[in-house]
Amino acid sequence: MIIVKDLHKKFEHNHVLRGVSYHIQQGEKIVIVGPSGSGKSTFLRCLNLLETPTSGEIWFDGQLITNPKVNIDKIREHMGMVFQNFNLFNNLSIMDNITLAPVKLKLMGKEEASENALKLLARVGLSEKADAYPSQLSGGQKQRIAIVRSLAMNPRVMLFDEPTSALDPEMVGEVLDVMKELAESGMTMVVVTHEMGFAREVGTKVLFMDEGIIMEESEPAEFFSNPKCERLQDFLSKVL
Amino acid sequence: MQAWFEKVGGMFETAFITGDRWKLYISGLGVTLEIAFFAAILGLLIGTVLALMKLSTTRKGKKTIWARIANAYIDVIRGTPSVLQLLIMWFIIMANCKNGMLVAILSFGINSGAYVAEIVRAGILAVDKGQTEAGRSLGLSKAQTMIYIVIPQAVKNVLPPIGNEFIVLLKETAIVGYVSLTDLTRAANQISSRTYEAFMPLIGAAVIYFIIIKILTILLDRLERRLRKSDNR
User: Fold this and answer.
1) Are A80 and B137 inside 8 Å of each other by CB?
2) What percent of chain A has pLDDT over 70?
């Protein structure tokens, strides 16, 4: 579904991605872990071209999206993204946050979008917040809304960029629960996270990134019980 | 004591009452307000366009030709005195136009636009980058993200400095006497040269400016407070 070939990204003199290649199949839940500065967030942000790769190819559903002629806005309609800092639109109510994109992009009428939004809000247990504003919500609630906002576009894949890193500890669970439920529904997911429990439980593959490359990839059980490269053994000994 | 009162009363009468002179201040104030109002609107339009031009980038994040044009505009306008700009407009660029009001509005609007541009640009940059990224990641275009998400939030940021700019603009119109318009300052000046008495007309004009700007300040404060309220809903 997403094929990445020899992806490089340089910021000024900082060579962040040094040749990443990977193939994400439909329905997979890819969890990416690694120390900070390893390039994992940059890799994720390259997938929907929030960062423009310096070189390399990204294919999405058979389309080369790194080609400058591609209309990236159209591609992004099918790729949801959830950010570390939620990034709910502060000037809009929760309902408008969710319906803005589907309505303005003419994918749905206003009423259909509202109905759909209410259904999604019920799914994450936040129906009563439809008329609230982002500043009235807790971090965990904001992140659940952010997930709903992406889902309202009916994306084919969801990208998560450290979705629980900015949350108070007691709110991490409620967000992970929503993500687990989403995983069970069959959504293709790519998740950058420090939640090793989530990686083990939900991931179909776990990738370890360091120094701008994928150093190791394997299934969760294997990944945690039998790490091969030394950097990963070192990393796991610190975080587990 | 009584003599002093009589003297001041007499000065007041010559400055404001005799020959219905108060009407001159009023019509002068009308000219001042008319120029300031239309120039402010023009400045806001020009400034917003310039700010967007200045913020435009190519796909690779480089400056566009539009950004360079906006930069040149701002440099030239900020680098020359507004009196000179007004005179150049009046005697050179629009030498065939006899409508001083139009020339003044254009000149001040063009001038104010350069300052507004920097204010608006700062206001847009102050909106968290994550807001733009979230908009773009949903498939909204650059323009849609600007219109529905960034600009509504930028408005709150720019209100205090924009108010400041309006106040500066209003007072700067005091130089339109150069293009033979009789604004509040020139009216006061004319009266003082007719009565050989400067105190009352000049202080009177200063008080009128002060009152107008005080009213403007109160209105802007109210607007700002109303917009801030939505932050804590």
Assistant:
1) yes
2) 100
Q: Quick one: pLDDT at residue B43? A: 97
Cα–Cα distance measured from residue B68 to residue B6, given in angstroms and rounded to the nearest whole number: 63
Going along chain A, which residue ranges are E strands? Answer: 2-11, 14-24, 29-33, 55-60, 63-64, 79-82, 157-161, 188-192, 205-210, 213-218
Q: What is the 3-state secondary structure (H, E, C) of B48-90?
A: HHHHHHHHCECCCCCECHHHHHHHHHHHHHHCCCHHHHHHHHH
* CB-based contacts of B22, cutoff 8 Å, min separation 6: B16
Using CA of residue B8, residue B211, residue B84, residue B86, what is the dihedral sign?
negative
pLDDT in tens, B50-61: 999 999 887 777
Chain A hits for B147, CB-CB cut-off 8 Å, are none
Alpha-carbon distances, residue B15 vs A88, A149, B187, B188, B202 (angstroms): 61, 67, 11, 9, 10
Q: How does pLDDT run across A205-236, given as a tens digit for each residue?
A: 999 999 999 999 999 999 999 999 999 999 99
Query: Which residue pairs, CB below 8 angstroms and at least 24 apart, start in B67-72?
Result: B70/B117
Which residues in chain A touch residue B232, judged by CB atoms under 8 angstroms apart?
135
Q: Phi then psi for B62, rounded to 5 degrees?
A: -95, 165
Q: How far, in Å, CA of B48 to CA of B155, rounded? A: 11
Q: State ipTM.
A: 0.92
Residues of A in contact with B150 (CB under 8 A): none
Q: What is the pLDDT of residues A18-58, one digit of tens each?
A: 999 999 999 999 999 999 889 999 999 999 999 999 999 99
**Greatest CA separation for chain A:** 55
How confident is the model over B82-135, as pLDDT tens digits? 999 999 999 999 999 889 999 999 999 999 999 999 999 999 999 999 999 999
Q: What token pair was written down for B138?
A: 């949903």
Q: Residue B12 — very low, low, confident or very high, per pLDDT cuts 50/70/90?
A: confident
Q: What is the dihedral of CA A140, A143, A149, A153, to 10 degrees?
A: -120
Give the minimum alpha-carbon distance from B230 to chain A in angstroms, rounded to a whole number.
8
